[in-house]
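Hi support team,

I've been running sequence recovery on a batch of backbones for a student project. Most finish fine, but this one hangs at about 90% for roughly twenty minutes before it completes. I'm not sure whether the input is malformed or the queue is just slow. I've pasted the structure tokens below so you can try to reproduce it. Let me know if you need the job ID as well.

Thanks,
M.K.
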């Protein structure tokens, strides 16, 4: 009779974790189902199980360490009840946590009670104004609800579902294949544990009906594109009186014709007349209305400095999007675009020509600097 430690390939004094790991590896390698029922593999498999059944028991292991095979009540008798133990129990212990119900370890906590309803998704597009100030919107959500006539049982009013005779009401059946016990949902009742013999006419035995529900949803101020709102208990109804699932609302913000969003900041491009850009002055920029910082205005004055150029940005503090997490607000960033006048009259053209004759390099410093660089470039290329 081989030494049990030698059978499992472990050292004397190894801990339980090392013992279990060695057994798991060898048992999977020599299992008869994986070796076509080979007699050698079957014998080796029984030997491995016998060794583990002794060494995994603290008292038996202590007796074996002291007296050898004689100390474990004739454990060398070829796999009797005391030497080999119950193979199925051993597999439950070692493989249950890794493979769940395949080896019977998944039965704990499993219930054939009321099942929770499915979660639902609803895609909702909102405007930037709604995202800025918040909004109350109504949604029409098609979902499953509990059938009222049968109260979700699926049985005709006045009758009750009967216990499934195949699974005895457990909802699951078990089959043994070699050393393995496989558990699955009962094929007759589908895991419900009960059968509806006289179905409800309203739901045809399903216990649920489809109906469009109207929900009022509050959109918080400051939400961004891609935000998600969870409404607990507003999904599909559960089966057999189980709890409802949840409703998840995925938000998308419709592009705005004036504003672009950058985090909490709002970006807006505002045209500036050429004369205002040259002389300085004041223009008006649009502003989103709503919230405590808006003052009821949908436009804000913007001071334009003298000689401003296209691309200049002016930041208006606290006029951007509100934050979802605190009282902070972003800014409104106004980008100025200097606009050249069109459709000029003869007099207007005459005045512009006179202005062009009077303006020199000081009035057009960027143009003068560019012309100087261009001349040097042409001289280097042409050598003239």
């Amino acid at each position: 009779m081989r030494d049990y430690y030698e059978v499992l390939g472990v050292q004397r004094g190894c801990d339980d974790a090392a013992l279990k790991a060695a057994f798991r590896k060898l048992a999977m390698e020599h299992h008869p189902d994986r070796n076509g029922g080979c007699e050698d593999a079957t014998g080796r498999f029984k030997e491995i199980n016998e060794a583990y059944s002794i060494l995994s028991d603290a008292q038996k292991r202590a007796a074996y360490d002291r007296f050898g095979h004689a100390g474990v009540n004739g454990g060398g008798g070829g796999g009797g009840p005391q030497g080999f133990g119950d193979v199925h129990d051993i597999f439950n212990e070692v493989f249950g946590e890794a493979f769940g119900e395949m080896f019977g370890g998944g039965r704990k906590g499993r219930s054939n009670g009321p099942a929770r309803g499915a979660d639902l998704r609803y895609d909702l597009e909102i405007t930037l104004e709604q995202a800025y100030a918040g909004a109350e919107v109504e949604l029409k959500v098609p979902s499953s609800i509990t059938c009222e006539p049968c109260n979700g049982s699926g049985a005709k009013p006045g009758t009750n579902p009967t216990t499934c005779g195949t699974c005895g009401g457990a909802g699951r059946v078990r089959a043994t294949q070699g050393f393995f016990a496989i558990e699955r949902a009962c094929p007759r009742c589908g895991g419900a544990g009960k059968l509806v013999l006289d179905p409800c006419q309203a739901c045809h035995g399903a216990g649920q009906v489809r109906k469009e529900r109207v929900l009022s949803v509050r959109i918080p101020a400051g939400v961004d594109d891609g935000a998600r709102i969870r409404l607990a208990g507003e999904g599909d109804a559960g089966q057999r009186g189980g709890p409802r699932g949840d409703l998840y609302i995925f938000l998308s913000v419709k592009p705005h014709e004036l504003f672009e969003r950058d985090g909490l900041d709002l970006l807006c491009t505002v045209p500036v007349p050429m004369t205002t850009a040259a002389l300085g002055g004041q223009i008006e920029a649009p502003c989103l209305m709503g919230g405590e910082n808006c003052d009821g205005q949908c436009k804000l004055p913007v001071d334009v400095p003298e000689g401003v150029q296209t691309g200049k940005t002016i930041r208006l503090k606290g006029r951007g999007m509100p934050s979802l997490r605190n009282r902070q607000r972003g800014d409104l960033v106004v980008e100025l675009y200097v606009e050249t006048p069109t459709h000029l009259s003869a007099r207007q053209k005459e005045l512009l020509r006179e202005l062009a004759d009077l303006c020199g390099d000081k009035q057009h410093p960027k143009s003068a600097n560019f012309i100087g660089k261009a001349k040097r470039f042409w001289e280097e290329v042409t050598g003239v």
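--
Follow-up from support: It reproduced on our side and the slowdown came from queue contention, not your input. The first helix runs from residue 4 to 8. No action needed from you.
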